[in-house]
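dumping this here before i forget
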Amino acid sequence: MKIKILTAVFFLFFSVATTKAKVVLPAVLSDNMVLQQNTEVKLWGTADKNKIVEVVASWSTEKYSSKSDASGKWLLKIKTPVAGGPHTLTFNDGSGNLALDNVMTGEVWLCSGQSNMEMPMKGFPSQPVLNSNEIISRANNPNLRLMKVGRNPSLAPLEDVKGVWKISTPEAAREFSAIAYQFGEMLQKQLKVPVGIIVSSVGGTKIECWMSKEILKTFPEVKIPERLDAVKQDFKEPTVLFNSMIYPLTNFAIKGWLWYQGESNRSKANAYSKLFPAMVADWRKRWDKGELPFYYTELAPLESKSSTGNGVKMRYVQLQAMEAIPNSGMAVINDAGMKDYVHAMDKTTVARRLGYWALGNTYGIKGISYRSPIYKSHKTEGNKLIVSFEHFSNGMTSYGKEITLFELAGNDGNFYPATATLTKSGNIEVQAKEVEKPVSVRYAWKDWVVGEVYNTDGLPLPSFTTISIE
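structure:
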């Protein structure tokens, strides 16, 4: 009798084992994910070699298939419907079904950078996020999905990331990027569709960490290590985060990117002016979806012990990057920094200004202003400079406060504090008693400032100078 029972158990186990699906999917393809809506997306994974993998989506009667290669890899493309769900995806290579449940179709954004993007809603130790508990308390939202990619430095491109999709809850939001979460929440409420946000960021990292070896070869001054075993902070080495936290996601369809990085490159702003556009172009090429929107945040002002002005130079380089990077936009936040803290508390302002770019520029919602005013030109009238701007359809304002951050220089190049007056036409008249014949003007040209001038939609004027910073 005992032998019969053991035999039955064996055959039951054998039956279950042989019907278990052998299809293996990457972490980004899982329950609770959001697929980019109304487009053609890639699905991929592994199976036994030379197997036909079939995929069926609950929104369609069509059956999709792909044959795995000699190493077991397979990839296919599938059309997604308009926003909605929940859906189910079923995978079968002849060994049994693997089903993904609670899949939504909607809008997907990938958010990357260093610590200010990584900073979770709960804050860092003794470094809070403004109004975090209130924001967390309203985080129950089944139409907002969150995925945080785990740190995993590698000198070779990897096939998969560490991470899992989660439905937005207070518990999930608490551990998620404060900027990315609030951006996603803003989009979901405005667009009224499911939104998926992927965060792939690591604090203290230079842009070189997020760039591919192929691109960095064109920058011979960047040294790529041959080994990581002797490196104490291996995650700070060139290419290692691109290989493990960006490259494995390049098959996953997205709507666009958010980027908040630059603190670790602030001492080499001129080099950044070349690295940044090169990185964006490389990412776009690898996703192969054209010039997907790329929205980024300028560095928040921060007091510096150095007199080199590295912070403001980096902010200016970031401003100029909008001209070098097609379909890009910078969220100006020179009014949202903290003098002595690189991790400024106010992440809501940052998220909203990134959200304005997405809602106004990408999704075309009329009435939403997303461009900060920027310097256009200036002309001399006696001992004054008349400075003109772009992107201020309803005028400029200082909200009734004195404007103190303008400076003027003559032919000698020496700048002096100036008085500035707003005109009804939207120009600003600037003069300084020390400068009889002004030639050049600059605004907020310090590492630490609190922005004073806005367009009437509340978007601040970024730091600028009319002389070369080289």
